[in-house]
Amino acid sequence: MKEKSIVEFEAIAFTENGTGYASAFAFNGLYEIDLENQKCKYMMLFPNENANGKRLYSSALHCNSKIYFIPMSGKYISIYNVEQKTIKQLSIPLPFSEYSFYKEAFKFVAAVCWRENIFIIPFTYPGILKLDIKTNKIKVLRQWIPKEGYFFRGGLCVDGNNVYIPSGNNNIILEFNMETEKGIIHRIGKYNNGAMCMYRYGKDYWIAPRQKGSIVIWNPACNLISEIQDYPIGFQSGKIVFSKIIRCKDKLFFMPASANRVLSVKIESKELALEDRWKPQEGSMVACMFETGEHYYFYEANRSVGLSKHYRICKKDGKTEDYVLEAERQKENQRDRLNLVIEMGESVRETENFKLEDFLGLI
Predict the structure, then answer these.
(1) Are 66 and 83 in contact (CB under 8 A)?
(2) Where are the beta strands (DSSP E) in 276-354?
(3) Cα-Cα-Cα-Cα dihedral of 29, 116, 137, 152, to 10°?
(4) d(Cα 17, Cα 177) in Å, to the nearest integer?
(5) N or C: which end of the chain has fewer CB within 10 A?
(6) Mean pLDDT throughout 89-102?
(7) Is 326 left (phi over 0), alpha (psi -120 to 50) or beta?
(8) What's this model's pTM, rounded to 2 decimal places?
(9) In the chain, count of helices (H) and strands (E)?
(10) Rounded to the nearest 5°, which phi and psi values hold at 68?
């Protein structure tokens, strides 16, 4: 029986008819996504990018019949025209050399479409990019940058004109006003240790620590801050504690990255409890790959026991379903990547996504 080709995705966006377009997580490839039937189809390579580049793009945004792919390790902003099935690329302004915290493999983390512009939020890039979607002109906004730098993570929240995003290596939260193009740096919490993600409920922002530390609840309207330091007995934080905060009914759930359990919290009482649902296997790493209006999509991996598990959680009732995205035309992707490597004069090396048997099958 032929083994299925399963592909993971992180940067994904959907058109009005429900069709998704995504960049492969572990290598170069643009795919068309059919979530209902759990299928994906290889379309083409992203030009001018590494054939086996991992996490080329961190997120994707659908705007005006185009999909904007936001680079993480990639070199360009790639714009896929859905109607013409073509890719246009925009160069990223060179970062200013005085910012030592910039890491080329972690450029940008998210983007927000607002009026006639896309604001591209940095991971470590020194500044926010303002992209005019009519002219494709890019402006770098950097007056707000703190001296100590940042490592912005997930959980971007938009409230009117304002964007809020937490930093993973310190207790900074950036509040950026897209109208005035000005940013304010907030330093939130005493006992937390960087933020992995953030979730807004009502006027409060719940901030999950990246490394062992407190859960912070912040109300920016009155700058009220509270911290939860006491975790339930039996909870072990691991190296990277949480990966995502999700909500089902009247509870928030802090999903683990390398922690050993899921934590639930009643929003009103703020009481933490161990959750039996979605319990990861010991030693696993868990990541929320993407979400839609109906589901959160997770991936759990544990190399020591050969575990590779995909599942989704329904936002309405918390129901869990296994899912995989089986790839069509995957051999064409492998062939295109091989040709690109040869064209660039590079040596062909075996990787997790291009093994010796794949190579032999193409020659």
Answers:
(1) no
(2) 285-291, 295-302, 307-314, 320-322, 326-328
(3) -60
(4) 31
(5) N
(6) 91
(7) beta
(8) 0.93
(9) 2, 29
(10) -95, 120
Reading across the β-sheet that carries 285-291, which strands appear in turn? 285-291, 295-302, 307-314, 320-322
What is d(CA 99, CA 142) in angstroms, rounded to the nearest whole number?
11
Q: Is the dihedral of CA 248, 254, 257, 258 positive or negative?
A: negative
pLDDT-based confidence at 353, cuts 50/70/90?
Answer: low
- What is the amino acid identity at position 255? M
Tokens of 70: 């936001």
Structure tokens, 222? 């009155």
* Whole-number pLDDT of residue 101: 94
Return the structure tokens found at 119: 């604001």
CB 11 within 8 A of CB 57: yes
* Closest among 145, 150, 125, 151 to 70, alpha carbons compared: 125
Query: What is the band of 193 on the pLDDT scale with cuts at 50, 70, 90?
Result: confident
- pLDDT attached to residue 14: 97
Please report, for residues 194, 250, 260, 292, 299, the alpha-carbon distance to residue 313 in angstroms, rounded to integers and kept in the order given.
Answer: 26, 16, 18, 10, 11
